[in-house]
Amino acid sequence: MHTYNTATDELARAVIDYALSRIRMDPPPLDGARSAEELARIAGPTITEDGLGGLEALRVFGDVLAPATISIDHPRFLAFVPAAPTEASILADLITGASSIFGGSWLEGAGAVHAENEALRVLADELGMPESAHGVFVSGGTAGNLSALIAARFTAQEQRGRPDGGWRIAASEEAHSSVQSAANVMDVDVVDIPSAADRRLTGEGLRSALEQMSDTERDGVFAVVATAGSTNLGIIDDIAGIADVCEEFGLWLHIDGAYGGAAAIVREARHLFDGCDRADSFIVDPHKWLFAPFDCCALLYRNPELAAAAHTQQAGYLDVLADERNPSDLAHHLSRRARGLPFWFSLATYGLAAYREAVAVGLDLAEQTRTRIAEHPDLELIEPSGLSVVAFRRNGWGAAAYDEWSDRLLRRGLAFVTPTKVDGEVALRFCFVNPRTTMDDVELILGTLD
Ligand SMILES: *Cc1c(COP(=O)(O)O)cnc(C)c1O
Questions:
Q1: What integer pLDDT is reported at residue 117 of this predicted model?
Q2: Which residue in 136, 215, 237, 305 has a CA-CA distance of 20 to 30 Å to 91?
Q3: Is residue 166 part of a domain?
């Protein structure tokens, strides 16, 4: 099973041909929604005592399984947060697997970790974080938020010497669902801080919420989560104002830029991220708007030693690794794929200027689309929205009409746009990430709403 032979060559060529044909598809297929019953029927049993052989397994994948997925990089995939991995990043993903690198320790993965660290350094510099800032690539924003918040609580526990229990995270109502999920895992509460009329969490709002708490309640707050680009509407909190209050009250500032953080590399948008340089921890998902394949979240700490104190696993068999700064020590994980490598390879291949331009395309599409919707007689723009998100309603439509429309577009392979809720009411939402999306794509979708 492990022996290299000419059958491996044949399979390698077939796999690479397959990968290349998928990369070349323009556009890739869209409609892949299938029921579990249908798939079980058409795929049949594929894992057998004797094995199908690689070429047959590849055929099953290509003919049956892949068509039962929705391509996130289709230019009219505008639901959730899409993705658009670069060709270079996809190819580097192949060689990351082929290289069998343990990305958890410097000892085993130095070359790969060095490259990942350079990519992390570039992000820290773009945000203006200090020289001390450092971090690790984790699987996604959910894992990044959790690991950062664990480090925050560990630090508060060490510093405050208060009885355990009663720990709380302060976050705006617009914070991502993964913040609540982290709180559940950590068995702590989330205090919802009301956002201002423009949907931003402000320094003032945070201060007044903290002042209204009892001393005991306030002493339990170990972190404030600010969002740099909310998922639903692309809103960026008043980061600088929040940073002031965090400093005054001695609170860990975690910034969730999983989706929106990418826009900090665009010069015209950079001012929106003022204050991010003061974060104790920050995340951005390169698998969203920085054109890397899943799964890739950059987690940065202002003071990585605090994260290492919280996360480093101790065991006799790990002692040999203890002298180095290991990626494993900075998050809730041990074994890890060098998942930052495809992102590094892509940055190294195309350069930062190409990245700035490609992210700016999403901002530009959103701006043009907002104008277009504001002029449309049957559509109502929801304001404000920010970055590359546009939300709107179709006059006269109820929830069922939105669902039907969304299903119909997907079935026709035309677009993937799913309804969301804004202020408790159903709405439509576009999120632009893919630089291959054009205004013609937007017009095609809007044309189905007449
Ligand atoms: C997507 C997102 C997350 C979660 O990231 P995953 O990579 O899906 O785990 C967290 N926060 C925000 C703001 C997001 O947009």
A1: 98
A2: 136
A3: yes
Residue 406 lies in a domain: no
Domain count for the chain, please give it: 1
- Ligand 1: centre distance to CA 142 (Å): 6
Is position 183 within any domain? yes
Residue 251 maps to which CATH number? 3.40.640.10
| Three-state DSSP class for residue 224 | strand
**Cα→Cα distances 108→49, 135, 423, Å:** 35, 18, 50
What does the alpha-carbon distance between residue 384 and residue 107 come to, in Å, rounded to a whole number? 49
The length of the chain in residues reads 450
Residue nearest to atom 12 of ligand 1 (CA): 258
d(CA 85, CA 96) in angstroms, rounded, equals 15
| 30/444 Cα distance (integer angstroms) | 15
Paired strand residues for 253: 224
Q: How far is the CA of 141 from the centre of ligand 1 (A)?
A: 4
How far away, in angstroms, is 438 Cα from ligand 1 center? 25
Question: What is residue 449's predicted lDDT score, i.e. its pLDDT?
Answer: 95
Indicate the helix (H) or strand (E) that contains 282: strand 281-284
Most ligand 1 atoms within 8 A of CB, residue of 259, 282, 296 to mutate: 259
Residue found by looking up tokens 């665009």 in the block: 266
Residue 255's domain spans which residues?
93-350
For residue 140, how far is its CA from the centre of ligand 1 (angstroms)? 7
User: What beta strand segments (E) does 341-384 contain?
Assistant: 379-381
**What pLDDT was estimated at residue 446?**
98
Q: Does residue 337 form part of some domain? A: yes
Rounded CA-CA distance 93/113 in Å is 15
Q: Which residues pair with 252 in a beta bridge?
A: 223
User: Residue 80 C-alpha to ligand 1 middle, in angstroms?
Assistant: 10
Q: Which atom of ligand 1 is nearest to the CA of 257?
A: 13
User: Can you list the residues of the chain whose pLDDT is less than 70?
Assistant: 1-2
Pocket of ligand 1 (CB under 6 A): 81, 140-142, 176, 178, 227, 231, 256, 258-259, 285, 297
Residue nearest to atom 10 of ligand 1 (CA): 141
pLDDT of residue 5: 83
